[in-house]
Please model this.
Amino acid sequence: MSATLPTPPSCGTVLIAGAGPVGAACALLLARGGWPVADLHLVDARPAAAGRDSRAIALNHGSRVLLESAGAWPADATPITTIHVSQRGRLGRTVIDRLDHGVPALGYVVAYDRLMQALDAALDAAGVQVRHGVPARPLATSAGILLAELGTERVPADVFIAAEGGAFGEQDARRRRFDYGQSAIVATVQASDAPAGWAYERFTAHGPIALLPQQTPQGPRHCLVWCGLPLDGARRQAMEPQAFAAELHQQFGDRVGRFTLAGPRAVFPLGLNTHDTLVEGRVVRIGNAAQTLHPVAGQGLNLGLRDAACLAQELLLQGAGLAALHRFADRRRLDRGLTTRLTDWMARSFATPFAPMQHLLGGALGLLDFTPGARAMLSRHLMVGQR
Ligand SMILES: Cc1cc2nc3c(=O)[nH]c(=O)nc-3n(C[C@H](O)[C@H](O)[C@H](O)COP(=O)(O)OP(=O)(O)OC[C@H]3O[C@@H](n4cnc5c(N)ncnc54)[C@H](O)[C@@H]3O)c2cc1C
Model:
């Protein structure tokens, strides 16, 4: 990106609130594209010493290309070669293989922590300083300059990038909000008989169970994202490890053998929470600050990284003005709309207790298995999105 873009006509001051993966990627792409680092402020409310979360994230091929080009790809990402999708208690299933798409991997599993280490190191190398323990929010705009609160200071900025993300359970309600009545337990598990590189998504009546392959210093493991009723989530989080593994086996079936719990469990409430508009005055939203999705298709961060790349590109082309922000919002409409609708549809339809609908969806999975064109279209969107 940095090699091809011209120097922006007039830069201006950019303030990024939130140094999670999306805000950090946006700052990095700006700095590597030639934005003066003295005019780039990246702050995070979290103190530097605070632990991050244990989440592992599936990143698609497009995100890998983006992060690699920015020098922030974690070396120990685990490739996903095959994805197996099935429905509990029904026959339909489909298998998506990297060879059908001519790519080295369908996606990669990366620990949130490791991704942040790679981004922090790349920011450091690019001369961008992250100020931790500094919450930011926009205040008023006058004469085309926005005033923002940065911890105890008030500073002017030409553009305020809201990248404060967060999970569904901790966010204020936005224009479109839907509570799926589900929570996700995230944990690391060991499966006795899992083929290397295979990821699994198994739909149950109360939510999907995803198993993502993860190479760790202790050997092969899987990151489990087990969605279900919040009451079950709380109960499963408190269960003895052996009972937890047995219940998981009973829900997931025999496909990968027996499970052993290999790490702590964390619970996340799940919902859809999106803004209709990405730009308000000189404030622009990206990542989870713009849209928070159900993790069913593993799309939240992939979509957020595409927001970050598109915004950085427009700012580098046009400078920190309203033209860049509006062009960014226009360019993101299609991808956001499609990804949000697809994710929402999957989260709602597959978690239905209504038997005829379950049969229909089982049939749809089976049909997908015999329809390479449709499978390729769906896979392409999940692998790279719309740019
Ligand atoms: C269980 C689960 C599994 C998931 N799996 C996947 C997956 O497989 N693939 C995928 O693509 N996505 C996945 N996601 C979604 C993904 O985690 C998010 O989309 C992603 O973390 C969003 O990144 P972000 O930088 O926008 O926000 P965050 O990761 O939430 O980071 C925001 C940062 O902003 C800081 N902040 C907050 N408020 C302020 C403020 N006022 N001022 C300054 N800083 C502030 C926070 O401290 C934080 O560091 C999953 C989500 C969940 C819950």
